[in-house]
């Protein structure tokens, strides 16, 4: 065996090092996921399977955690929530004769902040808190981010249905979405909390459920609770009352005021028929 063969064999037998956090290949691997994997994770994130002996995290995320799905779900939810909210506001304003309806673009920024912070900041705090307490978690930070991102998948179709102006339907969909995705979330996190004291485990789970419920509640209360009508908008049904030209205006100037009012679109009428001369 020559030296070249020995070197080749040594290179093949050498264990391949995982990419560093600072290398581009590390982040490239987080988006290396197939369409089938993403669709399966989206589907089963809203369908809890209790009593199966394994969790959603172990069955669908651990083989290959990704950030493509969470980012896609987050951006899609931002768009559907903002658009549906404005559509709902418009439908509720149909027939309203007091104020003009206008698109509220601030909802896009608010939805972006709330959803992206929930997907990336909340799991980071949870994972860091468990590490700080020296709890042996069964999931990494990337797996936690992936879990939280996919847990919002159920709200994408729900946010579209929220445009329907039925209060009972909106609250029913909110409870249903929070319950289904919350069960998947808790069942995936609970096995890692068994090493914690019962009190701390209950507190952790309660905080996770509270944050999940507050996000769902915020969707309904802020975006779909009622039509947001700008009280400063001009009235549609009540035209401006004709302005009155003071009687002290000389008659040889009144026609100038009248002509200016026609140009400006204002209807001025004289309050007196008397003739004044300078």
TrEMBL record:
TM stretches of this protein: 108-129, 141-162, 168-190, 202-224
A single cellular component GO annotation: Golgi membrane
MF (Gene Ontology): small GTPase binding
Compartments it resides in: Golgi apparatus membrane; Membrane
InterPro entries xrefs: Yip1_dom, Yip5/YIPF1/YIPF2
Keywords: Membrane, Transmembrane, Transmembrane helix
Yip1 domain mapped to chain residues: 60-217
Gene Ontology biological-process entries: vesicle-mediated transport
Predominant place of localization: Golgi
Highest taxon in the source lineage: Eukaryota
Protein topology in the membrane: Multi-pass membrane protein
Family from the record: Belongs to the YIP1 family.
PANTHER family, per database record: PROTEIN YIPF (PTHR12822:SF2)
Name by which UniProt lists this protein: Protein YIPF
Organism annotation: Ornithodoros turicata
């Amino acid at each position: 065996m020559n030296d070249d063969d020995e070197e080749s064999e040594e290179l093949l037998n050498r264990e391949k090092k995982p990419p560093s956090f600072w290398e581009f290949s590390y982040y490239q691997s987080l988006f290396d996921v197939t369409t089938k994997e993403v669709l399966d994770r989206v589907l089963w994130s809203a369908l809890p399977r209790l009593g199966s002996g394994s969790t959603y995290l172990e069955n669908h995320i651990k083989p290959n955690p990704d950030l493509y799905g969470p980012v896609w779900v987050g951006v899609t939810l931002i768009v559907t929530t903002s658009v549906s909210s404005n559509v709902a506001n418009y439908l509720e304003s149909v027939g309203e004769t007091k104020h003009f309806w206008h698109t509220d673009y601030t909802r896009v920024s608010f939805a972006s902040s709330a959803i992206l912070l929930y997907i990336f900041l909340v799991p980071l705090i949870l994972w860091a808190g468990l590490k700080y307490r020296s709890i042996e978690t069964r999931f990494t930070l990337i797996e936690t981010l992936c879990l939280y991102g996919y847990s919002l998948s159920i709200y994408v179709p729900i946010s579209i249905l929220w445009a329907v102006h039925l209060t009972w339907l909106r609250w029913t969909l909110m409870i249903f979405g929070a319950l289904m995705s919350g069960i998947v979330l808790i069942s995936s996190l609970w096995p890692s909390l068994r090493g914690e004291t019962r009190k701390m485990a209950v507190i952790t789970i309660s905080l996770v459920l509270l944050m999940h419920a507050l996000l769902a509640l915020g969707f309904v209360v802020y975006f779909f609770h009622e039509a947001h009508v700008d009280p400063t908008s001009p009235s549609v049904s009540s035209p401006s009352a004709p302005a009155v030209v003071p009687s002290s205006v000389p008659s040889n100037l009144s026609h100038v005021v009248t002509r200016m009012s026609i140009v400006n679109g204002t209807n001025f009428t004289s309050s007196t028929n008397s003739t004044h001369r300078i």
